[in-house]
């Protein structure tokens, strides 16, 4: 008979429930896919906001309206930067 020190790792009973492990791994993969999809959608919408803001800013006749659209474009750039975690979101400031 072998002593506990002579056993290999494959002989130890680790006590994992395979069904519970499957559920945990499945949920983790699902969360990862949803997180990545959400991040791509957020970046896509932010790029559209920047594009629309700059397009509108250059087509406006009024300086005040152009400045307003530039602010919208800057907001879109901020959303892109927070999506890519370059800068912290407003939620993290407080």
Automatic annotation (TrEMBL):
<keyword id="KW-1133">Transmembrane helix</keyword>
<feature type="transmembrane region" description="Helical">
    <location>
        <begin position="40"/>
        <end position="58"/>
    </location>
</feature>
<keyword id="KW-0812">Transmembrane</keyword>
<keyword id="KW-0472">Membrane</keyword>
<feature type="transmembrane region" description="Helical">
    <location>
        <begin position="64"/>
        <end position="87"/>
    </location>
</feature>
<protein>
    <submittedName>
        <fullName>Uncharacterized protein</fullName>
    </submittedName>
</protein>
């Amino acid at each position: 008979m072998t002593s506990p020190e002579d056993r290999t790792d494959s002989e130890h009973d680790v006590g994992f429930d395979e069904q519970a492990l499957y559920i945990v791994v499945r949920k983790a993969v699902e969360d990862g896919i949803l997180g990545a999809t959400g991040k791509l959608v957020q970046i896509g919408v932010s790029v559209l906001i920047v594009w629309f803001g700059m397009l509108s800013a250059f087509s406006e006749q009024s300086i005040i309206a152009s400045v307003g659209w530039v602010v919208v474009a800057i907001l879109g750039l901020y959303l892109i930067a927070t999506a890519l975690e370059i800068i912290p979101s407003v939620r993290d400031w407080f």
